[in-house]
């Protein structure tokens, strides 16, 4: 293993080499992903300047609790964001709703 790099950093480098996108918000291996109460991961576009998260035009990834996910759904209903990808999270493992979702 290259000196001074964590497994998470090496995994992130490999993802990027394979063409994975970098988003605003949480990194792919963010500690929030492994938090005990994290249940969802979403990737979304910010559609308005009034959005409570992010800036208009940004694509963002967040790892969320159940309550945070419900707020995101409310913000989508209000037109502030558009959720593009969703995965359930269990013990840091991602279970995407559909195979073809962006990652």
UniProtKB/TrEMBL annotation:
InterPro entries: DUF5720. Residues 5-101 form the DUF5720 domain. This is DUF5720 domain-containing protein. It comes from Murimonas intestini.
